[in-house]
Design brief:
By secondary structure, the protein is of the alpha/beta class. The protein is built from three helices and nine strands; from the N terminus they run H-E-E-E-E-E-H-E-E-E-E-H. The termini are far apart.
């Protein structure tokens, strides 16, 4: 009798455990910032290629990264980017440059088009940071404009932003990242022009 009772409890318990579901995976993406057309651009007849970004330590995967202070890091388990972060950043930059009309055209580095310029990017930080009394998206990317015909660096600048999150979760982080990328896009276009 005791044997049947134990088996019944195990069977019922396994039913409860097997029926529980993990929270649904939430997918986030980067919004393409609005870019105003640049009047009288010195690059209006030139093409620019946008290679995949480099990283100094940030993982450019689909994982949404977070950090608690300066010591503890991780990735959200139930939230991720819609594509690898590197591809999202590369695609966003192509669209921003193309929409701005700063260049004749902006293309991915896989294009067969011969470019006049290349804009390289290095990601120093791209994560959700939570500290004792604040939460923010940290975005720090360096851009280098290269004249491909001469093989020379024309200019280079690092853009860094801390944008407060409306909530302390992946959704708040994604919203803050999109605000930071909008600011970055505006500043990048002004710097290039």
């Amino acid at each position: 009798m005791k044997k049947y009772f134990v088996l019944s409890v195990v069977f019922v318990w396994s039913g409860f455990v097997g029926c529980t579901q993990a929270p649904a995976l939430k997918i986030y993406s980067l919004n393409i910032p609005q870019a105003q057309a640049v009047p009288a651009s010195p690059y209006a007849t030139k093409t620019i290629k946008v290679p995949y970004p480099y990283s100094t330590g940030e993982e450019l995967s689909q994982k949404m990264q977070f950090a608690y202070g300066n010591t503890s890091r991780g990735a959200y388990q139930n939230a991720q980017w819609s594509n690898s972060l590197g591809k999202l950043l590369q695609g966003t930059l192509v669209e921003v440059l193309d929409n701005s009309r700063l260049f004749k055209t902006a293309v991915l580095d896989t294009s067969a088009v011969r470019e006049d310029y290349r804009i390289e990017s290095t990601v120093f930080a791209f994560r959700h940071t939570v500290e004792a009394n604040r939460s923010y998206a940290l975005v720090s990317i360096q851009f280098t404009l290269v004249d491909t015909k001469e093989g020379q660096v024309l200019k280079s600048r690092r853009f860094s932003y801390q944008e407060a999150t409306p909530t302390v979760d992946a959704e708040g982080y994604a919203k803050a990242v999109n605000v930071a990328l909008s600011r970055l896009s505006r500043d990048l276009l002004q710097w290039l022009h």
